[in-house]
Design brief:
With 362 residues, this protein is an alpha/beta fold. Helix content is 30%, strand content 25%. The strands form three sheets. Strands 12-15-18-17-16-19-11-1-20 form a nine-stranded mixed β-sheet. Helix 4 links the parallel strand 3 and strand 4. Helix 1 packs across helix 3 and helix 7 packs across helix 8. It starts with a strand and ends with a strand.
């Protein structure tokens, strides 16, 4: 059936490559949000912890809670905590990122009410992505507020909007300038060492001189960095495979799938795979958009993808019911498949459905 193979030795390889790109004094924050980019957050986090990662990061509180419950000891920051999840976040010793005045005020009131120990805090500033973050214009006010006894300020960071774009990138240059300025202003206010960070995976490859004290890597740990040259240094961690459920013979003129998405121009052999929308095979991958790999050959998805299945044209391929098919992985790189399907590796990887069995290879 369907399997998502997860190769921890490849994770280790990517970890080592990233460590080689940063200074020994720069810490590496491993991003394991969204089930570690669709793989298995607990296995990946345990492996990264064993490799000596400095800190882990998730997007939302529930993801951090699951890791703490699984016994992860390494510090875990929560990038985008929601207002109503802050009590739980603190209860589980997760580290909140404050990105708005509303979040920072709520954290402060929780610290006052509960006389909790100082809350480990990260501050996120918006330098141009215009998604989340304090305006850089209020840096003094926010950083001063973080200096109270209620907080233990750990880091101050921002996020680039186009770190993979060929340099010079106008948006990144502007953001880097703003970040340097807010770093200068913050340093005058903070009383102890605070880590500054700006780079995600592609940023580590493209802007290594701006690594400051830490970098945050997600996609590169899983084998991709948004550029063929950088991808070549990494190894894909996940491989999605399936098996042929049935092969049907279709006569010229007959159609395949819902709404007659494909019309046979010749007599054809159609193989059905047990992978559909619910497993991460997007509707837009149908109608010939993407190809899968079978017995060393490439075959296109024909017709519309269904909820639980998709069909491929195997007329010219020597294959049988029960044969293994690779959707993405080694013969068929996730980056290339994503591109053919008008998406990016992040979406393809993180969309693999929960009913696909995860197989961990140590
Ligand atoms: C997801 C995320 C990252 C990781 O980005 P990659 O491109 O996967 O390395 C880094 N920083 C923040 C704030 C993120 O949300």
């Amino acid at each position: 059936m369907n399997k998502l193979h997860i190769y921890l030795s490849h994770l280790e390889h990517n970890f080592t490559v990233l460590k080689g790109l940063i200074k020994p004094s720069t810490s590496l924050i491993g991003v394991v949000k969204a089930s570690a980019y669709g793989t298995d957050a607990v296995s990946i986090a345990l492996c990264l912890e064993a490799l000596g990662i400095d800190r882990l990061a998730v997007a939302y509180t529930a993801e951090g809670v699951a890791l703490k419950k699984a016994g992860i000891k390494c510090p875990i920051m929560v990038f985008y905590p929601q207002h109503e999840s802050l009590e739980t976040l603190l209860e589980y010793n997760l580290e909140p990122v404050a990105y708005s005045v509303r979040i920072l005020n709520k954290l402060q009131s929780l610290a006052v009410d509960n006389t909790l120990k100082p809350i480990p805090l990260h501050l996120k500033f918006n330098t141009g992505l215009n998604r989340l973050g304090f305006a850089s214009s209020i840096v003094e006010e926010i950083v001063s507020k973080s200096q109270s006894d209620y907080f233990n300020l750990i880091s101050i960071y921002s996020h680039l909007a186009a770190s993979e774009e060929q340099r010079p990138s106008q948006i990144c240059e502007t953001q880097i300038e703003k970040f340097l300025e807010l770093k200068r202003k913050s340093k005058k206010i903070v009383s102890k060492t605070v880590a500054f960070h700006l780079l995600n995976s592609s940023g580590i490859f493209n802007y290594s001189e701006h690594q400051h004290d830490a970098v945050r890597s997600g996609i590169a740990l899983y084998g991709f960095a948004n550029h063929p040259e950088w991808d070549a240094m990494l190894k894909p961690v996940s491989q999605l495979t399936s098996t042929i459920l049935q092969i049907v013979s279709v006569k010229k003129g007959e159609t395949v799938g819902y709404n007659s998405g494909w019309v046979a121009q010749h007599d054809a052999q159609i193989a059905t795979l047990p992978l559909g929308h619910a497993d991460g095979i997007s509707r837009q991958f149908g109608l010939g958009k993407i190809q899968v790999s079978i017995n060393g050959k490439k075959a296109s998805i024909v017709g519309n993808v269904c909820m639980d299945m998709c069909m491929i044209d195997v007329t010219k391929i020597d294959c049988h019911e029960g044969d293994e098919v690779e959707l993405f992985g080694f013969k068929n790189s996730a980056e290339k498949v994503a591109k053919s399907g008008d998406t990016i590796s992040y979406e393809l990887l993180s969309n693999v459905g929960q009913r696909v069995e995860r197989i961990i290879h140590r």
